[in-house]
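fyi for ur records
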Amino acid sequence: MEAYYNCLRCKGRKVRIMTRDGKEYRGTIKDVDMHNVYLMPESGGVRTSGYYPYPYPYGYVNPIITLSLFTLLAIALI
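which gave:
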């Protein structure tokens, strides 16, 4: 529950998120629900996880990354 409230406070701000498995993500928190945080990455780099809710024409995909709140280790504003 603590991760949910931390993400909610940072919604709309640039953050660095570290997960329990050692991965690091940088971007802007776009949305938060009770199970996930939705992150817009800083750059169009390689995605190791992703959630693409809507199909886009011509191969374009929504760059939102979905991370489970249960895997988060730390969140820092950048």
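The helical segments are 2-9. thats all i got for now
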